[in-house]
Amino acid sequence: MDADALKAFQADVARTADERRKTRQLVAAGRWRDAEPDTGRARSYAVRHRSLMAAAGAESITGNTEDFLRVAFLSRGATVGRAVAYVEVSDGQKSEIGTGFMVSPRLFITNRHVIADAAAARGTQLTFFRELDERGVPRPSTTYLLDPDAFALFSPEDQLDYALVALGQRQSGLAEPADLGFCALSDQPDKHVIGMSTNIVQHPSGWPKMISVRNNILTARTDRTLLYETDTEQGSSGSPVFNDDWQLVALHHWGEPFTDRSTFGDQVPRNVNEGIRISAIYRDLAARLDSLPEPARTLLQQALQAAGAAAAQDGPPTLSPPRPVLSPARTLRRGAEAVQVDQDYANRQGFDTAFIDGLPLPLPQAGEALARRIAPLRAGEADAASGELKYEHFSLKLDKGHRIAMFTATNIDGRTYLEVDRQTGQANASEGEVWFKDPRVSASFFLDQTFYSAWSTYFDRGHLTRRSDPTWGTAEEAARANADTFHFSNCSPQHFRFNESAVYWQGLERYVLENGVLDTASKGRLCVFQGPVFDDRIDLWADDVQIPSSFFKIVVWKGPAGARAVGLVVDQLKLLAEARHSLGAPQPLASVQVNHWRVPIEKIEAQTGLDFGETVRSADTIRDAAQPHVGEARLLITGFEAIRL
């Protein structure tokens, strides 16, 4: 929080100390309705609240009690919560987490101190339904980007501290904007009274969605803010604050421990929280409306009119009608040793583009559309905007939409390369069981154990850069490289039969080392690029995760006549029809063959959106005279000998 905003908050806390103390005393005595000093506001609130909450029919309760809440309070709260999202800003310059919510079918709001400007908005990802269901199981989430080019308005942190930005492209998941609903902005004068309870839907500390209900007393207000006492944490900034009718009353802004010692004695902590009044935000937006160009003016006008329409309806004026997003059954559908990671990531050099003497190989470049999906690193990391995660002898970049690496790039020193079993394609070493999160990048940008546990019926945690590939050099380097391959950022959903079935894809590096006729000057060195291949026409989905139907691998080396390269694609789609079942004691699995294709590198580029560079394309041996020509040079591989080098 900036200094001016903090001073304003502290001044409000000091100025309202007597008012807040009186409110707490009245609430403690069961007289919270007497806390509101504005009798007109209190009367309007009571009339509207009773109208909204009254039961119909002969069993209606009459009298002056307002302590009962209809059971619909719970279902309405769940409905309102659909519009609330976890906000993560990671644009290479700043890392922030917070909460925010839809205020119209197109516009999303949070604090300015969470999303500072349009540049930060472009590096923001929203995750809706980041929550546990009634069984304690994570719901399928949906992620969106923001589109500040379509609409973006900001208010300084020491004023109204809001960032209102247009919802952008959906990155993953199934929920459409209409499924989210929205919480209507309004300047109605009867939405709150001093002494009432507030309800806050939030992502405190980046946790799954939480709600604070009851015992959250609105103790004071200013023209600009509301002060209330509730539980919030870092990450709660930008949360919606509601009354008991689930009408939006404030944008949560700030909170800190505070002690009213004159009333309660020493060492009695209270949490004094500040929210920006929604009526103040509404009036500010209305005043700025005419200054906006089209079509931004239309978007804001729709949001303000939505509030007016909601106010005129008979019922809670908070949401558009949502469509249900049901958690699908666990079916696919269309649409180690005790390794320990060296936490000093500064010693990782990553992929060496000059690894092969005389053959510079830059990292693949993402096309325009794909580049927007590269997950940036956290602010403070070197070259954070590039998204390159550097490990021992390999690098990768994450696709934040699919939450899987779009590619990995690995250096292999053939002189010390671990032995690979040519029958299975596996290194002759046992597989590790522990996988790690990389703290240099947001955990929302990659799949973790939550997914792999939920979908263990189908998938193993599959390496992209194989553990044997970068494991060379000194004993210390080899151990670090081995452990580095066990980061979730290097993990992809591979069918449990994939490792045993994709033998040519798994063993291609070794085959090239043995048969590729490497140039003496290259010292037996190879470079390998690999990653998933997505195809919207045929891919299956596991909850909100698109499962790659194929994986590519490109091996590049230097021969006596210059650069050489081979591209291979392996298909796991037909494996996905089989779920893993418990059969008691482990049994040998029947052999299953998957299709391996020798594919032109240009074809891999077209399928992935990656550009491997002219050096790699021109080195492709698939068009050599000795190669068989089949269709568009897509050749089914049934043995290593068919991979002409």
TrEMBL record:
Gene Ontology terms, MF aspect: endonuclease activity; metal ion binding; nucleic acid binding; serine-type peptidase activity
Xref: InterPro entries: DNA/RNA_non-sp_Endonuclease_sf, Endo_G_ENPP1-like_dom, ENPP1-3/EXOG-like_nuc-like, His-Me_finger_sf, Non-specific_endonuclease, Peptidase_S1_PA, Peptidase_S1_PA_chymotrypsin, Peptidase_S1B
Catalytic-site annotation from UniProt: H463 (proton acceptor)
Enzyme class: hydrolase
Every ENPP1-3/EXOG-like endonuclease/phosphodiesterase domain range: 391-619
Any single Pfam family the record assigns to this protein: Trypsin_2
Domain DNA/RNA non-specific endonuclease/pyrophosphatase/phosphodiesterase: 390-619
PANTHER family: ENDONUCLEASE G, MITOCHONDRIAL, ENDONUCLEASE RELATED
Name of protein: Serine protease
Naturally occurring in which organism (per UniProt): Xylophilus rhododendri
